[in-house]
């Protein structure tokens, strides 16, 4: 299997795991948890599990102070801000609308990559972005709950997720083994949300059994596996293509809604899904891995 194909498959798999987050988060809310509690517990469980795994498998951890500093900054001000904003937006607007706004980030990644990494905006990327963007819009067609603050939070999530992806794909941390990078991102995120929870007085542990189960599943599949597989894919195909291909995530949200919540799928949503898949397949078939200008690191 070619490296590009393997990377594309990894991004799709990670997107499927990430796509379960809205449903699992809703279960957590219904079980008595709040945003900070879900994130603090999720990342703490994930941190314990992945560091135990690294110790058990004797993975060599070679990280210098510069890489450690970059990882801390990216985890807190990149991934941390993104996931907090996104989870909080789900309290104000429907998950499908939040996903639509979040998935403006491939456009942001494409432009940031062009500006900061000298990655060209090719015809293939433009066509794929148009297909994916229209597809996401169609999947969210008909949503009427346009809460201004919820929309603002979702846009903040999109912006910081784009910065997070581009930074990881271009910085000194690009050289790290995916398991090691994932372990540090999760560890710093856990510390950040635990401290935030203590300061705000928002930590709640008296939640339902279903909420605990949802958070544990979130920690394993939608955190450890999702982040690790995604970063491995970014290493193979670059941040811009990874962002476009990860647009399959809203499709996962729709499928889980049908299977578990018995939601009805409209024709326009199926059409949107088809456009997203078309964009993903097109960019995967027609693109090659971008050559990153390492002198243009952030």
TrEMBL record:
A Pfam family reported for this protein in Swiss-Prot or TrEMBL: EamA
InterPro entries: AA-Vitamin_Transporters, EamA_dom, EmrE-like
Annotated localization: Membrane
Membrane topology, record value: Multi-pass membrane protein
Keyword Transmembrane (UniProt): yes
Domain EamA residues, every copy: 6-140, 149-282
Recorded GO CC terms: membrane
Keyword Transmembrane: yes
TM region positions: 7-29, 35-56, 68-89, 95-117, 124-142, 148-168, 180-199, 205-231, 240-261, 267-283
SUPFAM superfamilies: Multidrug resistance efflux transporter EmrE
Entry keywords, A to Z: Membrane, Transmembrane, Transmembrane helix
Family: Belongs to the EamA transporter family.
Name by which UniProt lists this protein: EamA domain-containing protein
Species in which this protein is naturally found: Anoxybacter fermentans
């Amino acid at each position: 299997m070619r490296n590009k194909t393997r990377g594309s498959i990894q991004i799709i798999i990670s997107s499927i795991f990430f796509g379960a987050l809205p449903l699992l988060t809703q279960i957590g809310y219904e079980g008595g948890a709040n945003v900070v509690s879900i994130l603090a517990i999720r990342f703490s469980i994930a941190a314990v599990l992945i560091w135990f795994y690294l110790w058990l498998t004797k993975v060599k951890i070679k990280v210098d102070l510069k890489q450690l500093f970059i990882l801390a900054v990216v985890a807190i001000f990149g991934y941390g801000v993104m996931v907090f904003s996104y989870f909080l937006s789900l309290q104000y607007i429907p998950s499908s609308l939040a996903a639509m706004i979040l998935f403006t980030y491939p456009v942001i990644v494409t432009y940031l990559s062009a500006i900061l990494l000298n990655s060209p905006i090719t015809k293939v990327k433009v066509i794929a972005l148009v297909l994916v963007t229209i597809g996401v819009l169609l999947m969210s067609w008909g949503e009427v709950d346009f809460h201004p603050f919820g929309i603002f939070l979702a846009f903040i999530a999109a912006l910081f997720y784009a910065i997070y992806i581009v930074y990881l794909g271009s910085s000194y941390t690009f050289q790290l083994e995916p398991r090691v990078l994932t372990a540090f991102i999760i560890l710093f995120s856990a510390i950040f949300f635990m401290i935030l929870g203590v300061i705000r007085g928002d930590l709640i542990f008296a939640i339902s059994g279903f909420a605990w189960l949802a958070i544990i599943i979130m920690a394993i599949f939608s955190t450890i596996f999702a982040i690790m597989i995604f970063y491995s894919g970014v290493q193979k195909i670059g941040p811009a293509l990874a962002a476009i291909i990860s647009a399959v995530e809203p499709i996962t949200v729709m499928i889980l809604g049908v299977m578990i919540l018995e939601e009805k799928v409209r024709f326009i949503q199926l059409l949107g899904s088809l456009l997203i898949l078309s964009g993903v397949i097109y960019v995967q078939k027609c693109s090659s891995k971008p050559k990153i200008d390492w002198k243009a690191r952030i």
